[in-house]
């Protein structure tokens, strides 16, 4: 190599070394700030109807959320995902929207919303909106027009089909909330498709005017300064070119619509357009509710070449109710839960980012679901929190989860508000289960379990409302509530605060890699997070017995946080959760 070549090569090598690193979302960043704001924070999901009522109406409102921002700040929350607050007939508690750019008067006014955004900003808390774009309410003016004739300007905004020659529905698809997915409309003389309830007609995404209207609505909220979007039921927006009957999978002779329409080819074209016309260029995050996206397809959905930043994927939440059939629950083992979560961690290692969650407004309480054999729900809540707040990804906490809230079990199906609980109950009876068995399934899996009012204090209605709460408060509110737990150093709430602080102060818990440990153990859930020469280990005992930890994860282990007062490095007490540090020798 001559001198000139040598200098050229040296220059090239220096340039290569100077190339800026790329962050996990695929953007070029400086090393110091290798993660985006939403990868370093905690998200808190609020079900506004049940959070805090400031008017005595019995329904929560926006001002109630603003009033509790400091509480959320104390938990280290950086974003609030609000389930829908738009005008809605409330057939599915707001997931049936009749106006995409307004606030339901039950929750307050647009001025209240602006105030919430502004007060949030002062505290570094962003507001994230729920976009329900697979369907609208049947009371939306678009649908009222669409159903009025076959020739009106919005005739093609929803999915209309003629009856079969015998007058029956175009296909045998069963909607997610039970019964046929087709509803006859006398006015128009055709059937319309509804993936969910009859009152939730599916929008026709093939129509560019529909897409434009939906994208405009999302941009309206971006202009208001929101911090991101959760995109509802997004895997259903593309329908197959041909509508065919499915193989019957129940006594009703119908076939679940999911099998026929979820993740239809071409869906990503719609979503790329969505990204280009709405999300691109904004400092926000997007998380899609994407039932049924296979791990191998993830790179197409999230990250640099995908459409969203994160995807809610449900494999770990389905372990006890495969296929979401509540009357046929499955026994499950800890290794199944670990491998479901491990698969999501592996899948998001290089593509996108993982939204970690155990609860949301569609799931029962995690202490009942994931630790059914632990009678002490306080220790169950702390043990689960240890995993939730130390896995790799952005933790999503559902209101009340941080208090260790539990399921309810009401006497009659009539006491339940949730539309899906009624559908599952009827399905169970139709499948030959007794009323008691059908109700037992509802007790275990009803969405109302998570929707009972937030437990603020020990006063009437748990401090949620001075009126008549829209859904009964859980009877245990005098023991489990924010005011009591705030003062108790040993509470679930203070355990969440402790872990949140640990996460904020240690980059290894956000930027570090993840590796499963003791993968075959049916007793211990353990994993390591590593960054440079720092290694943190989380270990949780899922049994009611003291278990011994293998030397490689107990020797030289400095316990940073444990749910036990006097933890022992070599063992885990029953249901103990701990986080510790192992020094790695250089
Ligand atoms: C999503 C929501 C759920 C709602 C459904 C229909 O799954 O999370 O609450 O019922 O979509 O919009």
Provide a compact summary of the structure.
Helices cover about 30% and strands about 15% of the residues. It is an alpha/beta fold and about 575 residues long.
Distance between the termini: 36 Å
The gyration radius over C-alpha positions equals: 25 Å
Flag low-confidence runs: 10-32
* CATH topology assignment of the largest domain: TIM Barrel
What's the average pLDDT?
Answer: 93
Helix share of residues? 25-40%
Looking at the chains present, what oligomeric state does this protein adopt? single chain
How are strands sequenced across the largest beta sheet? 11-10-8-3-2-1-13-12
Descriptive overview:
The chain is an alpha/beta fold and 586 residues long. It folds into 2 domains: 3-136 and 207-502, Alpha-Beta Barrel (TIM Barrel); 512-583, Golgi alpha-mannosidase II (Immunoglobulin-like). Helices cover 28% and strands 15% of the residues. It has helices at 3-18, 62-67, 69-73, 110-122, 141-146, 208-223, 257-261, 267-279, 298-301, 334-347, 366-370, 377-388, 419-430, 435-445, 448-451, 482-487, 492-505, 508-511; strands at 42-46, 77-82, 126-131, 160-161, 173-174, 182-185, 190-193, 228-231, 255-256, 285-289, 310-312, 355-357, 394-398, 513-517, 524-531, 534-541, 547-548, 557-562, 571-572, 577-583. The strands form 5 sheets. It has an 8-stranded parallel sheet with strand order 11-10-8-3-2-1-13-12. It has a 5-stranded antiparallel sheet with strand order 14-15-16-20-18. Strand 2, helix 4 and strand 3 form a beta-alpha-beta unit. Helix 6 (208-223) packs parallel to helix 8 and helix 13 packs antiparallel against helix 14 (435-445). The chain is globular, with a radius of gyration of 25 Å. Residues 10-32 have low confidence and may be disordered. Alpha-D-glucopyranose binds at residues 92, 95, 132, 196, 232-233, 289, 361-362.
């Amino acid at each position: 190599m001559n001198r000139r070549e040598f200098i050229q090569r040296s220059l090239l090598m220096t340039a290569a070394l100077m190339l800026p690193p790329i962050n996990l979302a695929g953007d070029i960043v400086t090393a110091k700030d290798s993660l985006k704001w939403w990868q370093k924070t905690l998200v808190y999901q609020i079900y506004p109807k049940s959070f805090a009522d400031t008017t005595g109406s019995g329904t929560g409102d926006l001002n109630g959320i603003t009033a509790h921002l400091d509480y959320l700040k104390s938990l280290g929350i950086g974003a609030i995902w609000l389930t829908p607050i738009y005008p809605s007939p409330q057939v599915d508690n707001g997931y049936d929207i009749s106006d995409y750019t307004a606030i339901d008067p039950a929750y307050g006014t647009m001025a209240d919303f602006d105030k919430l955004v502004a007060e949030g900003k002062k505290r570094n808390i962003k507001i994230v909106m729920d976009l329900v774009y697979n369907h609208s309410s049947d009371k939306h003016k678009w649908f009222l027009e669409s159903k009025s004739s076959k020739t009106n300007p919005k005739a093609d905004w929803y999915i209309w089909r003629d009856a079969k020659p015998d007058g029956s529905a175009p296909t045998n698809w069963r909607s997610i909330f039970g019964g046929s997915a087709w509803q006859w409309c006398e006015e128009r003389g055709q059937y319309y498709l509804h993936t969910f309830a009859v009152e939730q007609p599916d929008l026709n995404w093939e129509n560019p005017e529909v897409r434009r209207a939906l994208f405009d609505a999302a941009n309206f909220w971006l202009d208001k300064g929101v911090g991101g979007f959760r995109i509802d039921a997004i895997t259903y927006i593309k329908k197959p070119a041909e509508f065919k009957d499915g193989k019957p999978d129940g006594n009703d002779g119908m076939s679940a619509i999911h099998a026929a329409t979820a993740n239809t080819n071409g869906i990503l074209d719609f979503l790329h357009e969505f990204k280009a016309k709405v999300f691109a260029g904004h400092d926000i995050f997007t998380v899609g509710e994407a039932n049924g996206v296979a791990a191998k397809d993830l790179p197409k959905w999230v990250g640099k070449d995908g459409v969203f930043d994160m995807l809610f994927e449900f494999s770990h939440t389905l372990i006890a109710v495969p296929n979401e059939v509540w009357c046929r629950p499955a026994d499950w083992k800890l290794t199944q839960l670990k491998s479901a979560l491990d698969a999501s961690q592996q899948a998001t290692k290089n593509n996108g980012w993982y939204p970690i969650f155990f609860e949301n407004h569609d799931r029962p309480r995690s202490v009942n679901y994931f630790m059914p054999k632990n009678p002490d729900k306080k220790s169950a809540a702390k043990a689960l929190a240890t995993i939730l707040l130390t896995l790799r990804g952005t933790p999503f906490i559902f209101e009340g989860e941080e208090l260790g809230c539990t399921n309810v079990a009401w006497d009659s199906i009539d006491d339940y508000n949730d539309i899906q609980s009624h559908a599952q109950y009827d399905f169970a009876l139709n499948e030959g289960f007794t009323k008691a068995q059908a109700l037992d399934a509802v007790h275990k899996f009803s969405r109302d379990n998570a929707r009972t009012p937030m437990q603020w204090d020990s006063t009437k209605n748990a401090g949620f409302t001075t009126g008549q709460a829209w859904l009964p408060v859980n009877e245990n509110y005098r023991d489990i509530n924010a005011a009591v737990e705030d003062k108790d150093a040993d509470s679930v709430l203070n355990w969440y605060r402790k872990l949140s602080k640990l996460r904020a102060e240690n980059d290894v818990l956000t930027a570090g890699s993840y590796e499963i440990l003791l993968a075959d153990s049916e007793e211990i859930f353990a994993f390591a997070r590593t960054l440079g020469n720092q290694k943190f280990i989380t270990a949780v005992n899922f049994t009611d017995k003291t278990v011994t930890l293998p030397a490689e994860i107990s020797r030289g282990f400095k316990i940073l946080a444990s749910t036990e007062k006097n933890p022992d490095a070599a063992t885990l007490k029953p249901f103990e959760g701990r986080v510790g540090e192992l020094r790695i020798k250089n």
